[in-house]
Amino acid sequence: MQSIQESKAVLTAAEQQVARLERDGITVATGFLVGPALLLTAGHAVALSLGASGAEPVRGMTAVFDHRDGTGWSSAGGWERVRLAELLDSSPPAANDPVPEGMRTAEDGLDFAFVRLAGHPSPVRDAHGVLRPRGYYRLSDEEFVFTAEGLYLFHYSQRVTPDHAQTQRTRLGEDGRRVRYRGANTLDGASGSPLVTRAGRVVALHHGHNGGWNQGVPAALIAERILAGPHAGSLRGALDAPPLPSHADTFRAVAAPAGDGSAAVRGATAVGEAMGALLGPHRPHATVPGPDGEPVRAADARQVAGYFRDAGPGQALGIGPVVEAARTMAASAGDGAVTAAVLAAALIRETAGHLGTDTAPRDIIRQATEAGDVARAALAAMTVPCPRPDGVARSATADRELAEAVSAAALLAGPDGVLVCEPGATRDVERPVPGHGLRLPAGNAFPYTADTPETDPWTRHIRLVRPYVLLLDPVTGDGEAFRRLRGRLAAEGSPLLVLTTADASDPRAGLLRSLGDPADGPVPTVVRVPVGPGRLDPLRALAVLTGATALTADSRVLPGAAWFDVLGRAELAVVSGSETVLVGGHHDPAALRRWIASTRELRSLTDSGAERAALDAHLAWLTSRAVTLAIGADTAADLVPRTAAAARVAHAAQAALRSGTLPGGGLALLRARAALPPGSEAPGTHAVRAALATPFRVLAARTGLGRDEVERLCAVADPELLAGERPFRAPDGGEPEDAAETVLLALDAALAALTAFLGTVGTVGTG
Fold it and tell me: Which SUPFAM superfamilies does the entry mention (predicted)?
């Protein structure tokens, strides 16, 4: 069994220590570091690079190292090039090795080239920004016992980016001089790749494909040959040098305390990296690292969280707060879940090293909260109005058709209108259909409703399709008639939404209290409508919109009589913990027009500012708009994730219209980071500073922005100097934008996750 961080350590070492070998810009092989400025590759590949003569075989060759490191940062251009200076030792292939016809062979050939580089590649920064030596594989002559257990193979195969595979059915040949394996899909250019154990030890050099099997040379035989040759001192010096800390050791030393805290940080880091793979515009079914480090497909934060559901109790302490930050954003804002998770994971990772020290968790929370307040103020100051949400929509999805359609629909619905994205019947995104809808600033009143079949387990939103609507004021009654109504609707299979101005504590609210009794059957969804000026206006407006008759003290409709006749209906109702959205209704259009006209007339006649404000609010309810957008897809499998993506884009677009926009691509958070007081060593402040740069670093790595440029931008200490930077400008001149409301909520959710983590792990103990 191997932990996520142990797997990540092996992969990170390969990224830093395995090189693509080129001549004239063409990949000819793979090589790997085996000492300071020492590289090992396949002997036949070096000879082939200059043809059959083999004279000065490394002249004109370059080792190209991928400069990405544990954080995903990349140098300028993403690569570091080091010249191959001298061939120190080598051995030709054996006669039965898979090499081109006419190549020189030897009976005891091991097919390797031991090369000195012009210099050792530069150091790299670890996941915490600490500059560390690049390191190298230790090429030991100690015998390794090959078993069927899989080995990692890291290679380039004439590709710009490195690949890795895991071998299957690994076995040592009868003569003990070649290793055979399946499962590693290699192409030209893979010769010279290292085969590495799960512990990070190099045990063989891959050099070809023979008879349906991949084949390598045991590393112990190569080391033994070099140590018996004229340049044994070079390899011996590398082997005798004190070993550098492994990437896994570095993580444990810098990022995590011992015991439960360490497992929790590993969990938080792993789920944060998986969430980070979805940061920025992406298409459905993106590839993200799963709990075991292997790639999995995910469309959104919900699916990522599902992969980590079965984590052990130790890691769950870190995974839980990160997932909860994502879930909170999905439930409250509809977008920003991934950003919140990435920020939360970074905060947890950065503060974990201080657990068990003299700094108490409550002090870290206080410091982080104060730093968060500074960042929040900086974000508010840089917010600009949003006349059109096109940039925000494009930043939320890589699906350009979807972005354009949702942006136009958001403009039609307006910042506070209702915008619903539904699965369509065609492959295209259809034209938006306007209708009537309403947002009520109130959520479900009874916790029992959270267990109904209509409840989304991720957001806890209750979705009712074509529900009956009952409007209820605090009227007296024993509830018997209502229980009969509940039974009738249950038999019909129709949901019931109760909108009421009653409070369960009201002594007259006997009917309302009867709604919450699960002994009488499924509890309906109940929303308490806030009462403003003109006490019954909310119910009267809802009666006009839904076609229901409000049961009030003066409605002359008594409990127990004509219950079914007083019900109205909506096409759709979505109820969250803080809001209720209604779409459509069985209203009389002529009655609604008359009501709107009379309300406008009353407003024109009143001189009271308070009454005018109440009438404005009432008029906004009556005239509010709902826009429905039918989302199509090429296949049935793509329909659900594309519709979900459209809903996220819709939330982002409307949030931008409401609150304004900020620079996207993590730049707003980077500018907020620059606003923090310089030089503060407080752990909480440091954690916020590091976390605010994380989204930008993740996106920069994905887009190929050079590491030097990333470090330059992260080092700027003046927010105003960053204001003119445009590292993610699109070819058409467009720039990423984020809704200010979403970014601020994501920061709040991440800080809440840190508080939850420190409140749990800080008291569980880290020893």
Answer: GroEL apical domain-like, GroEL equatorial domain-like, Trypsin-like serine proteases
